[in-house]
Design brief:
Largest sheet: 5 strands, mixed
Number of domains: 2
Number of helices: 7
CATH class of the largest domain: Mainly Beta
Order of helices and strands: HHHHHHHEEEEEEEE
Shape: rod-shaped
Length: 301
Amino acid sequence: MSRAIDGQVMIRYLLRELPEDERQDLSDRLLEDSSLYSQLLLVEDDLIGAYVRDELSPRQRERFQQYLMATPEQRERVEFSRTLVDYLGQNPELADSIADESAPQPLSSFFRLFQHPVVTLAIAGLLLLSTLAGIWFVRDAWRLRASLQRLRVEWEALKSTERQLRQELSEQRTLNAQLESQKTPGPAALVVSLIPGLVRDLNGPAKLVIPAATQLLQLRLSLDRADHSVAYRVIVKTTDGMEVLSQRVANSSQPPSRQVVLVDLPARLLEPADYLVTLQGTRDGKTFLDIADYYLRIREK
């Protein structure tokens, strides 16, 4: 037959106030004696009731919060008890009815109230309200999820539109750059198109008057066929054989067709005279070979 234990001892056990040897001894007995364990559960119920009614001392309250509210399950039990106490506080007739049928017990035997039919009905009402609140919460959660999904779709659409606009802007900038490069040079530059070998025709070499404001002379040297040189060099001589200049031509500035080679020359170097313009090309980057000759006559301004 199991030996009963004083309720205050069990309270001290639950609040971790017993010495370690006594606590270990009681823990061993609880494992072996189911009736003793049932007694401990009743004491724990009463202790929870005392806590929610604020009947514990400050030290007991602190230790209760530390040891009997450490897990979510324990906190749920305390909150349920608090809800029930609040309900009884709002329904004094029900509380008086229960008090008439309940004998005073240490710590009020709080959870014996659950055996009263009116309390059972109240708990059922609370559970119904909790269920309705849960349904409302689930419905609201679904609405929130649908809103988030819609916002996500709209965000992806905005990102796609942004990428498309960026691509269009990049293409427009490229087109503007191409159009800018194709513009006819301004008054400070003069463009001259030359065809290879025109020197013995009736009109003689191409005749050109360079305006005084001209700073740059751009020669557009036409080729008989497409050329695949990797680099060019132009040599300008007078028809008397005096070399005026020799310079390499930037390959990056050449049209893709390579049937026209663009050469920029300082206009100040070309005095009125007849000139032989020789275009050379290289495919190995070392040896330059003649491609075509052009003739140009600069007249007095």
